[in-house]
């Protein structure tokens, strides 16, 4: 499959260009915090419940909360119907997402509790772990759970010998490599880095830099989204002055 023509990608993007990203918070009434994202053709919802007392009790940690992220790919989210329920892939993504977010959430503030984060992939078009992680991080902030920073994610990879940012489905399928990255932007610290395929050392460096820059752009959008939501909240008289 031809993925690059006249220096442009299938959807007309440059090599260093992200797909369109939209994000919104406080989209669900019953969750403590929530976020909805569209990233290219991906459509993802994230919802936070908790902190609440953890049961069964023997799982409780008196020094901190348990963070539990559950990534779910809806049966209708992919071309070929996905069998409902967890599988190896979703268990893996749930685990790496939980680990990535555990580095920013101040779990020590909520001993003996659990914070549940549900990530629902409603439509998938590659890069869903990055979208899920970015949306989950927004939902946690929307829930008012104290965090050291947000987590922002983006992937890069290799298609037809070229290093490009933010692979879409066809590029993921027929490309040579995909490299998802998630960072704590203020520290520049990496909290998720995976690689599916092969890269030379120089290619890896280039892909890493592209993914990092992409994640920083996503971080700016996350901050603007949260700021916009806060302004609306205060504008609606939702401040704490009793009015
Ligand atoms: O989504 P992400 O790139 O983080 O993970 P992946 O395992 O590399 O999957 C790449 C893409 O394959 C997904 O985003 C879906 O579009 C697609 N996929 C699928 O069509 N059917 C599945 N059962 C799993 C993934």
Number of domains: 1
What's the total helix number? Answer: 4
Major β-sheet annotation: 5 strands, mixed
Shape descriptor: globular
Rg over C-alpha atoms, rounded to the nearest angstrom: 18 Å
First CA to last CA: what distance?
61 Å
Outline the low-pLDDT stretches.
none
Helical content stands at 25-40%
Ligands in the model, by name, code or SMILES, are: cytidine-5'-diphosphate
For CATH, the homologous superfamily is named as GHMP Kinase, N-terminal domain
Report the CATH topology name: Ribosomal Protein S5, domain 2
| CATH-defined architecture | 2-Layer Sandwich
Strand content: 25-35%
Give the CATH level 1 class: Alpha Beta
Number of strands: 12
Mean pLDDT: 96
Strand order of the largest sheet: 3-4-5-7-6
How are helices and strands ordered from N to C? Answer: EEEEEEHEHEEHEEEH
Structural class: alpha+beta
Give a brief description:
The longest helix has 35 residues, at 201-235. The protein has 4 helices and 12 strands, in the order E-E-E-E-E-E-H-E-H-E-E-H-E-E-E-H.
């Amino acid at each position: 499959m031809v993925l690059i023509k006249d220096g442009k990608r299938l959807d007309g993007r440059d090599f260093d260009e992200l797909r369109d990203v939209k994000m919104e918070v406080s989209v669900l009434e019953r969750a403590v915090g929530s976020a909805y994202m569209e990233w290219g053709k991906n459509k993802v919802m994230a919802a936070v419940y908790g902190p609440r007392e953890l049961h069964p009790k023997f799982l409780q940690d008196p020094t901190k909360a348990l963070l539990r992220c559950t990534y779910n790919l809806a049966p209708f989210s992919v071309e070929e119907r996905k069998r409902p329920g967890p599988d190896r892939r979703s268990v893996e993504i749930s685990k790496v997402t939980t680990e990535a977010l555990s580095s920013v959430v101040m779990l020590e503030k909520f001993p003996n509790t659990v914070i549940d984060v549900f990530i629902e992939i409603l439509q998938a078009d590659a890069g869903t772990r990055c979208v899920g992680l970015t949306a989950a991080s927004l939902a946690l902030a929307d829930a008012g759970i104290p965090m050291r920073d947000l987590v922002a994610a983006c992937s890069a990879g290799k298609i037809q010998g070229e290093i490009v940012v933010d692979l879409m489905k066809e590029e993921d399928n027929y490309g040579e490599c995909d490299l998802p990255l998630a960072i704590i932007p203020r520290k520049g610290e990496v909290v998720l880095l995976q690689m599916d395929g092969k890269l030379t050392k120089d290619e890896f460096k280039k892909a890493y830099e592209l993914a990092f820059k992409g994640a920083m752009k996503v971080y700016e959008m996350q901050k603007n989204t949260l700021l916009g939501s806060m302004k609306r909240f205060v504008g609606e008289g939702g401040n704490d002055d009793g009015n």
